[in-house]
Structures are given as structure tokens and as C-alpha cells.
Amino acid sequence: MNSVDKKALKRESIIQTALQLFSTNGFHKTTIPDIASKLGMSVGNLYNYFSSKDLLAQEIIRYTSEVLGEKIREVNMLDVSAEEKIHKIVEIYFSMAKEKPEMIEYFLRVYLSNREVFSDGCEGMVCVSGFITEIMIFFDDAVSSGELRNQDFFSAFGLFMGYLGGMVFLKGEGVLPKDIAYYIDDISRNIYYALKA
Amino acid sequence: MGQVQHSKPKLLWLQSITCNGNTHSFLNHPDIFSVFSGFEVVHHPVLESEYTFHDLAALKIPCDILILEGSFIEKGLTKNGVEVSKMITHYGNEASHIITAGTCATFGGIFKQKDPEQISGFCFDIEQQTERYEKFASKLISLPGCPIHPRWLAYVLMMLSQGKKIAIDRLHRPVELYGYTVHTGCTRNEYFEWKVDTKGYGLKEGCLFYEQGCQGPYTRGSCNKILWNDTSSKTRIGTPCFGCTEPQYPKDRLFVTRTNMGIPATMPLGIPRRAYLTLTGVVKSFKIKRFSQRLLEYDQ
Lengths: 197, 300
Ligand code: SF4
Ligand code: SF4
Prior knowledge:
The complex is a heterodimer of chains A (197) and B (300).
Chain A: H1 3-25, H2 32-39, H3 43-49, H4 53-77, H5 82-99, H6 101-111, H7 115-118, H8 129-144, H9 153-172, H10 184-195
Helix pairs in contact in A: 1-2, 1-4, 1-6, 4-5, 4-8, 5-6, 5-10, 6-9, 9-10
Chain B: H1 2-6, E1 10-15, H2 21-27, H3 32-36, E2 40-43, H4 53-57, E3 65-69, E4 78-79, E5 82-83, H5 84-94, E6 97-101, H6 103-107, E7 124-125, E8 128-129, H7 133-136, E9 140-143, H8 150-161, H9 175-178, H10 189-193, H11 234-237, E10 259-260, E11 263-264, H12 273-284, H13 289-292
Helix pairs in contact in B: 2-8
The structure holds iron/sulfur cluster (2 copies).
């Protein structure tokens, strides 16, 4: 492995460790020394990768948005109906909430609740465009094929993502009586019926 | 004098199903007579010329360069008792260059709407080659536009009169004129880049792509490079480009941008949707103060 690859790998492990700590212990309670010690690296070396905690936080949101976007992109490439795509997207989102809860937790508890950290560098859609772009492509395809009703982007986006975010939030609060996977079919159907042409 | 004139290429302007728009547009060329002076104008629909329409219909006129205006129909349009299609074929065979002037003659245009099955352009039916294509392709130059820009026709005529070769694309349009999009050179480019919409027609500020139906980013033509009346263009004055040079012209709802959940249904020419949407999402996240202000405060 060359040094460029090694650096990239290290970068990613910093992102993943920080992601975990930020979402479990909270953004403000987690310090750079905490992250460094968990990784077994020196604080000075960590600063070589990210010059501040805010920059690291921004990089994490960019990273999670890319990961999620990449998965939805695969769904967009499939030659299946919009109804099936909705089902797959819900599946992806909920399985991520289960297997990598820190990613969704981070989005809901750090990104949406600490806007000041993201105001300079992650304005608006800048850091979440990997994910938003794929959702836009999903909607665009589904409307041009006549499966979904044409409407304002945000009214559809809010219905879809607000719903999923809400469910994951309930899961995080421990109030869902059943495993989140149990809700996939019904929720997919609800979203489809709400949006269909 | 007389001898010199006879050595010039013979130019014949022939009309089929047309509104005369291209004829009239070309009259706006400030140097029309200087352009025509490179030719012997054997027949023109509104200018005095050597031969009458009777001669034309009798298929008696010599012709080197044929300018064709108007949509093509095989049967049913007669003038002086002669099918116009017969005249076109006859003079098309005679000519060494055929210029289809305007979108109707080139692709079918507005008049195609009357009878889409029977009416088309001369060598193209929208983008499909017609049965005449093979025969005439080697001499064909397409000049779509509704109407043609006078300077575009002048460019072609001057190149031909000087015996120069004109580079053309797949649909036989001169690359020099149609290699650009109408968006190129529009004074609203900064607003397009930063996704700032105009607040209404005719205003100096804002771009017409998002709400007003502007087709400039995917319409081929140099309207914003070679200005109309040497002065301005539709988009510069605040009217959307209707895409009048495109094979599919006219689309309906010309003042409305078609969107799917707010996403433009047609992307700028050659731009992948993912690339466009990524860029748009990022750019829209910033509010640039300068672009929210009037350029001139009229009421001060
Ligand atoms: S008004 Fe039309 S041509 Fe001008 S910048 Fe906007 S999209 Fe381009
Ligand atoms: S701006 Fe568009 S509609 Fe207007 S003349 Fe040019 S190509 Fe045609």
C-alpha cells in the first residue's frame, strides 16, 4: 500500500471513530484528545488530518451523505418500478439505522442540532449533496415515468425523509415496540400511496 | 458589366408552405444588397428579380443556389397549377447548393402541426432523414430558426460566393453558427450560475431558466453571439428562448419550464443530470447579495 492510500485509510478511520463518539457522547462532550486516544494516535498527528473539531464534524456529514447516496444510486440504476425503489430505499435507511445507527444518529443529533458548527462550510445542501442528488434523481425518474405525482420537491422530500427520520428517532428513543425492520412494508406502502400519481 | 454579372452564381429563392418570415427577416440585413451583389438573383419572392413566378413554375429558370423557405409537402400545394414539390425537386437537382432557410424548410417547423403525417422539412422530418435526404445530402445546408437570423444566411451566402467550404454537423447546420447554445453569451449567465431566478419578464436581473421556460441552455444557435438587429436578443431583453432552431420546435407552453418535482425536465446540452443536480444543490445553498439587488435603482 502506498502512502497516499494509507493516509486515506487513516482519514476514514478517524471519521468513523469520531462519528461513533460524537453520536454516543454528544458533539460538545467529545474532545479531539478523546478521539485521538481511542484511535491510539497522538493529538498532534490527528490535527495533521483535521485542523479543527468543526472541520472533522463537517467531513463526517459529507462522508455519511456519500455512503447513503452511493446506496441510493444503486437503487436508481435498477430497472424496477418506483414502488419497488421506495421499498428498497426504506430498507436501506432502516438497515443503516440498525447496523450503523451512529450514521443516522449523527445526522439527527449532531448535524441538525448543532447548526453553528456547520454554518461555515456546510451551508444548505453543500455537505449533503451526495444524498440529496440521488433522491432528486429518484423523484425525477419516477415523475417522468408517470408513477409519482408532480409537485414541489420539498413537499415530497419532507414526506419521504421526514417520515423515515421520525421512525429512526423513535427507535433511538427506545419507544418502538417492534424491531424497525418490521415496519418496512407498511411504511413503504404509505409513502408510495401518498406520492403516487 | 453584363458579362461579370453572368459569371456570378444564380440564386433562386423558392417558397413552399411558409409565413414569409424568413424572407422578411433577411430584409432586415443592413447590407442585404451587398450580400446579394455576389449573386445573380434569378427569382426572389418579394424583390424585383430577373424571372417571374410564371417562369419559375414552368421550370425554366437556371439555378446554382437554391434557398428553400417553408415546410415540404409532396402533394396538395400547387402554385400556377404546378405542385410546389415538383418545382423544389427540379431546382434542387439543378442547384449545386441547397439552403433550407428556417425551421419549417429544415425540420418541418410550425406548419408541420397542421398535418404531421404529410408535412415535414425538405430533407429532415424533425430529426429523421426523409426519402429525399440521400439524393440531396451532398449539397444541403440547414439553417433552422423561426425565423432565420439575417446574418446567419448572409454568412452562408458569402462563404458560398467565395467558394469556401462550410463545416456542418450531423443535421447539416453550419458549426460556426450552431456549434454554440443560445445560452452562450447571454448577459444573464451569472444568474444562471448562481441559480437566481428573474422576478418577471423584461427585467434586467435574473435568469429565465427556472420558471419562464428559457430553452437557451439546450438550443443550438448563436443568438447571443451574433445579436439580432446587431443590438440584442430575446434572453438579453428578458424573454425566454423558445428553442426555435431545434428540430422539435415548436414545443407547447413556451413560457413555462417543465419540471419533475422541481427538477428541470431537460438538462443543459450534454450535461449529465447527476452533475447538474450536484452543482445546483451546492450553489443554491449560498445567497449572493449582489444577485438579489437591482442593477439600476430606477426610482431614485
Ligand atoms: S436566460 Fe436563458 S440563455 Fe440566458 S442565462 Fe438564463 S438560461 Fe441561459
Ligand atoms: S433566442 Fe431562441 S427562440 Fe429566439 S431566435 Fe434565438 S433560438 Fe430562436
